[in-house]
Amino acid sequence: MTRAGAAEDASRAEDDVPARLDFLLPPEVVSRLRRTPAFRGLGLRGGRRSRLAEIWAKGEEGETLGVAPGPGAGGIARVFGGVLGRRRRLISRTVPGLGLEITEGAFIAGTRGGRFCALSLDGPALLVAEAAHALAGELPLFATPAKLPALGDHLAGADRPHPREGPALDPGMDVALAARQILATRAGAVEAEIAALKAALWRDGPEAGDDPEPVHQTRVALRRLRAAMAAFAPLSAPGLDKIRGHLSGFGHILTPAREWDVFLAGMARDLRQSFPADAVLTPFLGEAKKRRDDAYAALRAWFAGDGARQFSVALASLPLLVMSTPVGPPCPLDDFARVRLEKRARRLRRVTMLAALDMDQLHRLRLDAKRLRYLGEMFAPCFPRRRTERFLRHLARLQDWLGAVNDAATTSRLVRGIAPEGSAAASGAAIVLAQGMALGFAAASVPHAIAKAEKTLQRLQALKPFWE
Asked: What does the alpha-carbon distance between residue 312 and residue 63 come to, in Å, rounded to a whole number?
């Protein structure tokens, strides 16, 4: 972050909500922190110093405690670790309200222990997000996201929603508060699915991870988040473009793994069932499995590199990049939702004959249906439940049939990419024959899927939109 940019952001963030982002930094690179251009650009200067000494223990009722050692540390049933270190708070002289807290020390937990370094940025949300992006571009930060303090009052007394569920919304709440809450929940859902995906990828070693569901659920969570970002774009800060780039990049990494998963679970299964004794399928499906393994290897490599680290920082700062107040007077969430839903539904209304559309047009129509569905699910608490569920049910069916058309197109592309070069003559000929079989299966499924999609679209267009 440059000094000029910081000053400009400070003027935009005068009314911004307070926020905090926490990071872990490898202890061996702490010495580089002060020498980075991003750190110098923030104009951080020394402030308060304090010592950190804490015991980690279980209380008499089984609760986890973090207490300072000394006479006041009563009621401890079992000690399982502790931390000893020092903390220093730095204040920015060029970015009003921005602070950085550096905590260094050593920890022990059971039989494990080691050094650690934690960084915490706090201040106006927009400035914290910008500073986090600047530091993450030059240092190996690992985000440990914290909830926005501005949401504390709104969420007080409410159960935290499951990552795959939406937050509790009130139709009359201000759209800016709803945007922060929705984006925080959707970002949390992506984090939860990524944790499940990483656990599956390395469950039994680097070659494990044959379950296709974690990749699928991660892509769904990512797409829901991107739909929410698009919906609330009018309230968002300019820094949102950087996060879109990170989300798009991660989506491109996930796509090949998902495409080969779908192929092996769908087309490959159908071929085996239809031609169980046909030997020509063996080398072809073996090549397909190898392509799938290569896609998963690329996914593991991404998680081990800088891309995953910077993505985690972008994800943690996402809710901070929604401005605390919208431009103009406050807007109720249901009014905002009606405008966004109507705009997204216009393209679906203009379509009549699906059979007249080419594959690219059908693909765009599928994306329109999917994005409208994501918006409808996001804003569903603002509208009558039965009408909303009925509309979304028909929309899901349309998306499924158009998805079948898209799967056929994807299958054709993947199959043509399995080239027999470098194989023995017999296996090369077998692959060519199997390619023809798979292409024929894919082409045969398209007319039926288009006919079903057209009937579903007609039923959907006959329904009164739930937001009217």
From this structure: 29
Asked if 174 and 324 count as a contact pair (C-beta separation under 8 A), the reply is no
Closest CA to 182 of 147, 225, 145, 146: 225
Q: Do residues 219 and 251 touch, judged by C-beta distance below 8 A? A: yes
**What phi and psi, each to the nearest 5 degrees, are found at residue 31?**
-65, -20
* CA distance readout (Å), 15 to 123, 124, 274: 11, 8, 65
For every one of its 468 residues, what pLDDT tens digit does the chain have, with 9 covering 90 and above? Answer: 444 444 444 444 444 678 888 888 888 888 888 888 988 889 888 777 888 887 777 776 666 666 666 655 555 567 677 888 898 999 998 888 899 999 888 888 777 788 888 899 999 888 888 888 888 888 888 887 544 333 333 333 333 344 444 566 788 888 878 887 888 888 888 988 998 898 888 875 545 556 889 999 999 999 999 998 888 877 766 667 778 888 888 999 999 999 999 988 888 888 888 888 777 788 888 888 999 999 999 999 999 888 888 888 888 888 777 654 444 567 888 999 999 999 989 888 888 788 888 889 999 999 999 999 999 999 999 999 999 999 999 999 999 999 999 999 998 898 888 876 555 555 677 888 888 888 888 899 899 999 999 999 999 999 999 998
Residues 322 and 248: their CA atoms lie apart, in Å, by 19
Q: Burial, 68: exposed, middle or buried (Cβ in 10 Å; 0-12, 13-18, 19+)?
A: exposed
pTM of the model: 0.78
Letter for the amino acid at 298? Answer: A
Which positions ≥6 away from 174 have C-beta within 8 Å? Answer: 326, 330, 331, 332, 333
Burial class (CB in 10 A: 0-12, 13-18, 19+), 240: buried
- At 103, give phi and psi (nearest 5°): -120, 120
Side by side, the strands of the sheet bearing 112-124 are 64-67, 44-59, 76-92, 99-109, 112-124, 18-24, 142-144
